[in-house]
Design a protein that fits this description.
- By secondary structure, the chain is an all-alpha fold.
- Helix 6 runs parallel beside helix 11.
- The mean pLDDT is 81.
- Helix content is 80%, strand content 0%.
- The chain has 11 helices and no strands.
């Protein structure tokens, strides 16, 4: 575990020096600021405006960080031959992957916490404090878990492809995963057996990001039960375990 945490710490420190991460973070804050500043233009819809733009900002930042970190970490260190230096030490390839994943996950967590402060402040400003609902932090947790799933997918792709392809493919995974219910519909009502098979396989392989979206529950004031969050957490753990295991298999066979 010591090697994993050491690699995670080094990854976190290295990621902080990348200016592109700062740009993504500032864009997320900008969206929250825009939501707060212009919410008054929508009479009677201030709360919905803040929630929609705020959660969209969190989601875009999480997707951006997952694509950038997951897509560039491993290919960049392979190109600079850093990975060879690390693996010559008593560090296994599995420890290296897990350390990279945990370091990137920590970066996304810190950015989300920093963004949560102004977002929750804007939420409370547009919504009476005595009506504060725990669905709000749960919605932010859902966005973070979604980012972790996407990060794992990006790391899997980066073990056998270039950084640019990984970023594009990860974006595709996010788009398709956000439309997972349509894939299920096409799998059930496809024109041919072949189409049903293809869409059915995609619906199973691509993560269903709609499971993580609590926006409508937050806007409608509907409660979110802990069993649902338990299902979401269990789904995340299972998916991360499978994807990172496959990534390790590909990474183990790669020659440097």
């Amino acid at each position: 575990m010591g090697a994993i945490f050491a690699i995670a710490g080094a990854t976190f420190k290295e990621s902080r020096r990348q200016r592109v991460l700062l740009v993504v973070f500032l864009l997320g804050l900008l969206l929250i600021g825009v939501a707060t500043a212009f919410s008054g233009l929508s009479t009677g819809e201030e709360f919905r405006f803040v929630v929609d733009f705020g959660l969209t900002g969190f989601l875009l930042v999480g997707v951006g960080l997952a694509c950038i970190l997951g897509g560039f970490m491993i290919p960049d260190e392979i190109d600079r031959r850093i990975v060879m230096t690390v693996l010559t030490k008593p560090v296994s390839r599995l420890q290296y992957l897990l350390g990279k994943f945990l370091g990137a996950a920590l970066v996304i967590l810190v950015v989300n916490v920093l963004m949560a402060i102004p977002f929750i402040a804007a939420y409370v400003w547009k919504h009476p404090l005595h009506q504060f609902t725990w669905v709000l932090p749960l919605a932010l947790v859902g966005v973070y878990l979604q980012s972790l799933v996407l990060l794992a997918a990006a790391m899997l792709l980066s073990t056998f492809s270039s950084a640019s392809f990984t970023v594009i493919a990860t974006g595709f995974v996010f788009i398709v995963g956000s439309l997972n219910q349509y894939l299920v519909g096409l799998a059930e009502h496809g024109d041919s057996r072949w189409n049903k098979l293809v869409f059915g396989v995609l619906a199973k392989i691509i993560p269903n990001f709609q499971n993580f979206d609590l926006r409508q529950a937050l806007l409608a004031g509907d409660p979110v039960g802990w069993p649902h969050m338990g299902d979401v957490l269990g789904y995340t753990v299972v998916y991360l375990t499978l994807v990172l295991a496959i990534a390790w298999l590909f990474f183990s066979e790669r020659e440097f």
